[in-house]
């Protein structure tokens, strides 16, 4: 008698996977239609369950590609439900995934950096010495470098250099530009001399001289 237990288990696994994928897709679509934050949050949680249950250890390129896609879908749902902090690690993972679709990877990177910039601006209002501001700044610098490594010729890269330089300038004290600020401004000017941001950087360098 042929042993079909393995085949049956695989069939049940596939059924469960297909069910959960279809269900979360329906919920996500309904959330988009109704603009319902609670539904978006529910979809995000089911995406997490789906990843843990079926994509924790991708078995092949198809599953790796699916994991990258699901991360983006979950991130979108998290952002739509105002759970930005939960979206950050998913977006970082998507940006770090060099096997994923370049378009999805770039979208993840831009969404991530926009979130971090907003967090920096929000935390700055509470003072530059607070830990949340320092962590957001540190995270932005690390993730902007990761984005540049992934997309060195992207049009966003010069803007990231500019933002990094401005943060360093703002951190400088009354005695003048810090060494980090000078280094970042100089790098901006040398790499992107044709951009308007470099003119502003040069002005800062002259004023500080």
Keywords:
single chain; mainly alpha; 79% helix
Into which percent range does the helicity of residues fall? over 70%
Q: What's the main sheet like?
A: none
Ranges where pLDDT stays below 50 over 5 or more residues in a row are none
Counting DSSP H or I runs of 4 or more residues, the number of helices is 9
Strand element count: 0
- Which structural class do you get from the secondary structure elements? mainly alpha
Question: Helix-strand pattern, N to C?
Answer: HHHHHHHHH
Q: Tell me the distance between the termini.
A: 88 Å
Overall 3D form: elongated
Q: Kindly report the average pLDDT value.
A: 89
Rg, Å, rounded: 22 Å
Q: Please report which band the strand proportion falls in: under 5%, 5-15%, 15-25%, 25-35%, 35-45% or over 45%.
A: under 5%
Give a concise summary:
With 209 residues, this protein is mostly helical. 79% of the residues lie in helices and 0% in strands.
Descriptive account of the structure:
By secondary structure, the protein is mostly helical. Helix content is 79%, strand content 0%. It has helices at 5-34, 37-54, 61-80, 84-96, 102-124, 131-150, 156-171, 179-191, 196-208. Helix 1 runs antiparallel to helix 2 (37-54) and helix 6 (131-150) packs antiparallel against helix 7 (156-171). It is elongated, with a radius of gyration of 22 Å. The mean pLDDT is 89.
């Amino acid at each position: 008698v042929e042993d079909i237990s393995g085949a049956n288990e695989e069939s049940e696994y596939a059924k469960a996977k297909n069910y959960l994928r279809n269900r979360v897709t329906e919920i996500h679509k309904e959330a988009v239609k109704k603009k319902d934050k609670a539904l978006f949050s529910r979809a995000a949680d089911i995406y997490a369950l789906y990843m843990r249950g079926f994509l924790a250890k991708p078995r092949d390129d198809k599953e790796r590609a699916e994991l990258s896609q699901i991360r983006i879908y979950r991130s979108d749902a998290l952002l739509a439900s105002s759970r930005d902090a939960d979206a950050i690690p998913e977006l970082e993972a998507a940006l770090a995934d060099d096997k994923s679709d370049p378009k999805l990877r770039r979208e993840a990177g831009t969404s991530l950096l926009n979130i971090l910039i907003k967090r920096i601006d929000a935390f700055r209002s509470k003072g530059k010495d607070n830990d949340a501001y320092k962590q957001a700044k540190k995270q932005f610098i690390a993730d902007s470098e990761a984005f540049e490594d992934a997309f060195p010729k992207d049009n966003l890269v010069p803007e990231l250099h500019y933002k990094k330089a401005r943060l360093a300038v703002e951190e400088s004290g009354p005695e003048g530009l810090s060494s980090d600020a000078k280094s970042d401004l100089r790098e901006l000017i040398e790499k992107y001399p044709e951009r308007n941001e470099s003119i502003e950087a040069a002005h800062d360098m002259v004023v500080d001289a």
